[in-house]
Write a structure and sequence with these properties.
The structure holds two protein chains of two kinds. Chain A is α/β, with parallel strands linked by helices. Chain A is built from 14 helices and 18 strands. Classes of the chains: A alpha/beta, B mainly alpha.
């Protein structure tokens, strides 16, 4: 089969590789019909995530048709059209039973790597380095899906791939980011990053009842989409004004009730602080440029919530812990527990409350995956989200 | 009591000598770094560019040894590092005799002084070596919580534990709140060198035992061991299918 493989920093290629086979009784083999390039794939592309190997198949946002199932699979059958969550969960460990699916205790065969780096291990994930298990990703013609009974969500025929594809990651992630904010009517939510996750976090905050939603980015086309499609009420272009000052002005000096970081480790910024973070990252003495999360903490109102959905890889410095403690902030974070959100969010799509496909800006074929990464990376042609058709 | 007091006094003496050697090493090293020309003249060697560079390198070595000794004055290895350094110094001084611009009397004096310090270093190193407690193999407890009742876990342990059952003592206890069973396995740790080699060769005892324990958890909770496209291979492998069937 053909698959988009990582070969090094800024080097991905569509290679011929062997077809997947059933390895465990709960596996299903999926023929991928649509996949996507995620913002977090760019962290791999840019070489910021450790434990990658040449030849790793990328892609953790994908859907398709079930072609083969293991002997233990009961809930899906050959021919079903399914969306797959990007994390892999067994459904039987304590974490899964608590619906903390991205912290599954059984799905990561390389748990020891994360234990060494992070204290404890998270779940396995598709196409996202060997510290999440070394699972082949879905930017391919076929993919093996472990625990198909737990993860694969059957999709009704009347919904298109593009309407439901993002249930497997960015829609669920954006929704969880908003849900962690405990939004109540009349509240103000600020969202750092108006990329795909940010757009869907804004749309989710709106669905959850936020009165005022402020989008923060540096690209006018993204800020425009945040207002026109996602439901933001205000925007801040941080290259034109000071984010903290603008937020104080917009919120009457109080600060947003909740702040969502939908940026993560490759944040951009201005001034000396940004140069310092960028220099450390380039010198390989830091994984992350934590500009967005620092700003979110500083901006949040007293006693508010900071929800971190952007991906971080390691240790960060200049972290305003004094602000967190003295102003009684709550920080909530996590890789999305996608399995928990897919079904209720599918219902919202079916009810016509949201169509997450509004974020798609580019459609390409699997063969064009290297170009897709390049276009997305450089934000060419106002690129927001690329989907790949197999 | 007398013999105990004598042993403590002896320990105290050798510790004091060791600290003294550490301070001496640090002081001499700093002097060599700061004033190589003056020191070279003092020991009768022409202070040309090469000599000054050599003196500075020796100074850096002396500072490292000194700090090592002062950090752990009862450990013999930092003191032995001084003995090695003394041997290098002596070789350097012997080589300096070849030069016609050497002040022979001062050089002989320097060699005698270094020889004296070498004897003191070696005696102190030997004494510290002798006083080291016998090496006891390090033990480590690895633990995992299996989301099944204690009775089920203990009954199935022999059947599913495989290698780890042979690697160490195992104990079972019910987790707080009855949330599964805590399994603890005590393993004997290899030396640091063996562990480092094991990591490179992918056969580190701790890592293998930890992996085995996770597999036991998977076997009891799920009925099988979970594979990824890479994990079915020994060592590093790309995360892509290989056409190889799983277990």
């Amino acid at each position: 089969m053909r698959a988009n493989c990582w070969h090094g920093k800024k080097d991905v290629r569509v290679d011929r590789v062997p077809d997947p086979v059933i390895l465990n009784s709960g596996d299903a083999i999926i023929r991928v019909t649509t996949s996507a390039v995620c913002g977090s794939d760019l962290h791999l592309y840019n070489g910021f995530i450790p434990t990658m190997e040449k030849g790793d198949i990328l892609g953790h946002e994908f859907m398709g048709e079930v072609m083969e199932i293991g002997r233990g699979v009961r809930n899906v059958k050959v021919g079903d059209r399914v969306v797959i969550p990007f994390t892999i969960a067994c459904g039987q460990c304590e974490s899964c039973l608590m619906q903390l699916f991205s912290l599954c205790e059984n799905s990561n065969p390389n748990a020891f790597i994360q234990e060494t780096m992070m204290g404890h291990a998270g779940s396995g994930a598709f196409g996202y380095s060997h510290m999440t298990g070394g699972f082949a990703g879905g930017q391919a013609e076929f993919v093996r899906v472990p625990f198909a009974d737990v993860g694969a969500l059957k999709i009704p025929d009347h919904l298109t791939d593009e309407q439901v594809l993002f249930l497997g990651d960015i829609f669920s992630t954006g929704y969880m980011g908003a849900e962690l904010c405990d939004i109540r009517p009349g509240q103000v939510v600020a969202v750092w990053g108006a990329g795909p996750v940010g757009q869907l976090a804004i749309a989710s905050a709106k669905m959850l009842g936020a009165e005022r939603i402020i989008a923060i980015d540096r690209f006018p086309y993204r800020l425009r989409m945040a207002v026109e499609k996602a439901g933001a009420t205000d925007v801040i272009n941080y290259e034109e004004v000071s984010t903290l000052e603008a937020l104080k002005e917009l919120t009457g000096g109080r600060g947003p009730d909740a702040c969502i970081d939908a940026v993560g480790m490759e944040a951009h910024g201005t001034g000396l602080q940004y140069a310092y973070d960028r220099g450390k990252q380039m010198a390989k003495i830091a994984f992350d440029r934590p500009i967005a999360v620092r700003e979110a903490i500083m901006a949040c109102r007293n006693g508010g919530i900071v929800s971190v959905m952007g991906v971080y890889g390691g240790f960060i410095d200049k972290f305003p812990m004094g602000t967190v403690m003295n102003r009684g902030l709550t920080i909530k974070a996590g890789q999305c527990h996608v399995h928990k959100y897919m079904r209720p969010l599918l219902d919202k799509i079916e009810q016509g409350l949201i169509d997450p496909s509004f974020v798609i800006s580019h459609r390409m074929t699997l063969s064009e995956a290297p170009k897709a990464y390049d276009v997305f990376m450089h934000k060419e042609d106002e690129c927001m989200k690329v989907v790949l058709k197999s | 009591m007398d013999s105990l007091r004598t042993r403590e006094e002896s320990d105290g003496q050798v510790g004091t000598i060791s600290k003294g050697l550490g301070l001496f090493s640090l002081g001499l090293g700093l002097a060599e770094m700061a004033a190589p020309r003056v020191l070279a003249k003092a020991i009768g060697i022409e202070p040309d560019v090469r000599t000054r560079l050599t003196m500075r390198l020796f100074g850096a070595r002396g500072i490292a040894s000194g700090l090592g000794i002062l950090a752990k004055p009862r450990r013999p290895i930092p003191v032995w590092s001084r003995v090695v350094g003394d041997a290098i110094d002596l070789a350097f001084l012997a080589w300096a005799f070849k030069s016609k611009r050497t002040h022979t009397e001062r050089l002989v004096g320097a060699m005698v002084a270094v020889l004296g310090v070498t004897v003191l270093d070696a005696v102190t190193g030997a004494k510290l070596q002798k006083d080291q407690p016998p090496k006891v193999p390090q033990k480590k407890v690895l633990a995992v919580t299996i989301n099944r009742p204690l009775q089920e876990v203990s009954q199935r342990w022999r059947e599913v534990a495989g290698d780890i059952a042979e690697k160490g003592n195992v104990t079972f206890s019910t987790a707080p709140g009855g949330r599964g069973t805590e399994v603890r396995v005590e393993i004997t740790m290899p030396s640091r060198i063996k562990k480092a080699v094991g990591r490179v060769l992918h056969n580190d005892v701790e890592q293998l035992a930890d992996g085995d324990l996770r597999k036991v958890k998977q076997l009891i909770e799920l009925g099988e061991i979970i594979h990824s496209d890479a994990s079915i291979h020994r060592g590093l492998h790309a995360a892509q299918p290989s056409g190889k069937k799983g277990a």
